[in-house]
Amino acid sequence: MLKIFTIPSLLDGESPRGELPPERELYGTFLRLAWPSVVEAVLVGLVGMVDTLMVASLGDEAIAAVGITQQPKFVLMCFLFALNVGITALVARRKGENKREEANQAMRNGLILGLGLILALAAFGFIFAEPFLRLAGANDDYIADGVVYFKIISISVVFQCLNGSINAAQKGSGNSRISMSSNMIGNAVNIVFNYLLINGIGPFPRLEVKGAAIATAFGAFVAFCVSAGRLFQKKNYISFHCPAPWRLEKKVVAPMLKVASSALVEQLCMRVGFFIFNRVVADLSTLAYSTHIACMNFLGLSFCCGDGFQVASTALAGQSLGAKRPDKAIIYCNIGQRVVFFVAVILSILMITLRRQIIGLYSSTPQVVEMGSRILLFIAVITYIQTAQVIFTGCLRGAGDTRFTAITAIVSVGLVRPIFGYLLTYPLGMGLYGAWTAIFLDQLCRLVMNYGRIHKRKWLEIKL
Predict the structure, then answer these.
(1) What confidence tier does 402 reach under pLDDT thresholds 50, 70, 90?
(2) Which string of DSSP letters, residue by residue, matches 223-246?
(3) C-beta atoms surrounding 250 within 10 Å
(4) Cβ contact 23:342 at 8 Å
(5) How many angstroms separate the CA atoms of 416 and 40, rounded?
(6) Of 17, 96, 177, 250, whose CB count within 10 A is highest?
(7) Within a 10 A sphere around the Cβ of 97, how many other Cβ atoms?
(8) What is the mean pLDDT of residues 69-79?
(9) pLDDT at 221
């Protein structure tokens, strides 16, 4: 059993290209980079759950009003998500090549490109909030609250995306603590103002759903200010003190956009797929949809755990390839797989044993508790598949193999999830359980495709 943790097992048939440190040092390097991102990602997930719980006190319609905005928001942000993938991959590769100035220039070029883009997208979301949410499947009983929430959130995505670009560069350089600290502070601000503004505590007005949106926007602004402030510290690898130019240059922008363009296709396919799937579920009923939103919080928590470890896989794979050490890229990919398996075991046990109590936090409606507790059994299985495929995806992105991850997204999220979601939910009459069966099939498809790509080793040969 312990042999799976040794270097021969971690190499998985790859030949060493030089001296390798002992297993303890390799795992230590991975975990030192991973733990801040894991803490950050889990706290972000927990804050999302707390947000929903606080809004849940206003009723099932309020949960639905906030939940219906999530996929439209991510559609707005997908262009910046893709750009950030390019920033992380390029910074990691340049650090591996020991080119600090070019790494810093990549961050600055990314900020220049991203700012104009996100301002235009935020304006679009604000102006077309109601038709956007109608398209997402919003019902009349909560559309008014949803529009108010989404207009404010559209403004906040400017700060979320700029914060994300800065942190993408920091993570690519191996400094994940900055992202953790900025988002922890921003999330704490979010929760405090949720408490004050949703229910109207002390001198603060009772704003209900609108208050939750304002709290989220203020938290995003504070997080951006914290991460931007870290750029003025000389000790950081990514810093304004590094004499890198601010002008756009082809040698920096071209490889960044090479990665980002494929990542954009991936993001668009994922967001469109999620958007359509969300519409399928929203059309069931407000009760079923609020149950779905509550359960998605826990699937999101599983994803956040995997995503935190994915940051380490992405950065270390990119740095290893930049240093001409594909053997170490393979090792870090497999270390990630071993670590997330144990995380999945813990999460699945909690979801199985406490499923009724967990759903009971969101609603006391018997139908919601019954449906939600059964769906948590789905999630207990999905979490093993999801965390594993997220690590594979991170390694491929770190190598710049975003064309393949885009193909995976087209097949799994763009086709499998919405098509099977509709067929199982309506023609086959499985309702919400059919929708969650489709989520399982989507995650399984991504795992199989990414596993095959990793083991073909073509990602180790990509040049940036």
Answers:
(1) confident
(2) HHHHHHHHTT-TTSSS-TTS----
(3) 8
(4) no
(5) 30
(6) 96
(7) 16
(8) 81
(9) 94
User: Is residue 48 over pLDDT 70?
Assistant: no
pLDDT tens-digit series, residues 254-277: 888 888 888 788 788 888 888 889
Q: What are phi and psi of 148, to 5 degrees?
A: -60, -45
Of 269, 267, 296, 213, whose CA–CA distance to 418 is shortest?
Answer: 269
Separation between Cα atoms, residue 38 and residue 346, nearest integer Å: 15
CA-CA-CA-CA torsion sign (115, 311, 42, 446): positive
The answer to whether 206 and 346 have CB atoms below 8 angstroms apart is: no
Amino acid letter for position 144:
A
| E strands present in 115-266 | none
| Comparison of pLDDT for 252 and 443, the residue scoring more | 443
Residue 226 has pLDDT above 80, yes or no: yes
**Which of 147, 27, 176, 156 minimizes the C-alpha distance to 88?**
176
pLDDT the model gives residue 332? 92
Alpha-carbon distances of 443 from 99, 295, 307, 456, rounded to whole Å:
37, 16, 14, 20
Calculate the average pLDDT of the chain.
86
Taking the C-alpha atoms of residue 271 and residue 311, their distance in angstroms, rounded to an integer, is: 21
Q: Which two tokens stand for residue 98?
A: 């020991």
Higher pLDDT, 343 or 45: 343
Measured between alpha carbons, how far is residue 135 from residues 62, 244, 266, 272, 415 in Å?
A: 19, 44, 21, 12, 19
Residues 105/244, Cβ–Cβ less than 8 Å: yes
74, pLDDT greater than 60: yes
376 close to 297: Cβ distance less than 8 angstroms = no
Q: Is the pLDDT of residue 285 over 90?
A: no
Long-range contacts of 144-147 (CB under 8 A, 24+ apart): 145/61, 145/62, 145/65, 145/208, 145/209, 145/210, 146/64, 146/65, 146/66, 146/68, 146/69
For residues 358 and 291, what is the distance between their CA atoms, to the nearest angstrom?
Answer: 12
Q: 65: which 2 tokens?
A: 């009003």
